Amino acid sequence: MNKITTTVYHADILMRLTGKISCLLVLIFLASGSPCYALLMTKMPEVMQTTNTEPQMRMISLKLPLRQAEFHWEFMSREELLAGKLVLRVIRSGETNEIIIFENGRMSDGWEAMNFSDTKAGKIYFGFKSSKKYATAPGDRLELELQVKQDLGGIGPEQKGILGAGTYKARGTYSGLLDEFKVPDELKDAPKETINKVRQMYEFTAFLENWQDQWDLHITSENGWLTPEQRQRNKQMLENMPKDDDTE
């Protein structure tokens, strides 16, 4: 199965809840009321994905393809990031649907930054999700373009760094196209409230984290927001997680 990465904050909770982390569906949910999104530069398992080959209206969930942001990243200034422009292009049968996510200091209607529980006032998380639905299909080609007006400082769990001013582009495909939510075996004994929260985050959603191109951060510090004890705990969790060649 595909290697799965999750977060230092929630991996232990997920393991206690499900007994194992072997399904991507249980990677994204919360311990404290806000979702915690895993960063994967790969495809979701086929069993999770839609079999519908025709365009379907879905919400969009995407993360900026920052190379060093293995789990999470926050920009220190929401204002400075939104001063630029983020555009997603969905290309199908020679036609392009250009979706502006933010520009000129504001998010577009129907879009918001993902709600990461630790994000402080004035900062902004590097993932974005729409409440508005767009036509998406398995054969689509995707292009992402970010215009950065000035150097953007940021912080992750284990690093600090800068995304320099300039224009960044990435090509890719969907990491997952999901329609109706099917409860996996690993979640069948979970509380109904948990299942409903996972359903809300996944159902009729296109996930965009499968980028061919990634954007380099200039790392300025190997210390992020985690304490040394938390970093060690994170390392131990990762060592205990399934590897690429694990099978059930």
Q: Mean pLDDT score, rounded?
A: 79
For the termini, the CA-CA separation is: 8 Å
Structural class: alpha+beta
Strand content: 25-35%
Number of domains: 1
Number of strands: 17
**Poorly predicted parts:** 1-41
Q: What pattern of helices and strands is seen along the backbone?
A: HEEHEEEEEEEEEEEEHEEEH
Number of helices: 4
Dominant shape: globular
Largest sheet properties: 6 strands, mixed
Estimate the helix proportion, in percent.
10-25%
Rg measurement, Å: 18 Å
Keyword list:
248 residues; alpha+beta; 6-stranded mixed beta sheet; 17 strands; globular; disordered N terminus
What topology emerges from the helices and strands here?
Blueprint: H1 11-18, E1 56-63, E2 74-75, H2 78-82, E3 85-92, E4 95-103, E5 106-107, E6 111-113, E7 124-125, E8 127-130, E9 134-136, E10 141-148, E11 152-155, E12 160-163, E13 166-173, E14 176-178, H3 192-202, E15 205-208, E16 210-211, E17 218-221, H4 228-240
Parallel strand pairs: 1-15
Antiparallel strand pairs: 1-8, 1-9, 2-7, 2-11, 3-4, 3-10, 4-5, 6-8, 10-13, 11-12, 12-17, 13-16, 14-15
Give a structural overview.
- The structure is a single chain.
- With 248 residues, the chain is an alpha+beta fold.
- It has one domain.
- The chain is built from four helices and 17 strands.
- It has helices at 11-18, 78-82, 192-202, 228-240, and strands at 56-63, 74-75, 85-92, 95-103, 106-107, 111-113, 124-125, 127-130, 134-136, 141-148, 152-155, 160-163, 166-173, 176-178, 205-208, 210-211, 218-221.
- Strands 1, 6, 8, 9, 14 and 15 form a six-stranded mixed beta sheet that branches.
- The longest helix is centred in the last third of the chain and has 13 residues, at 228-240.
- The N and C termini lie close together (8 Å).
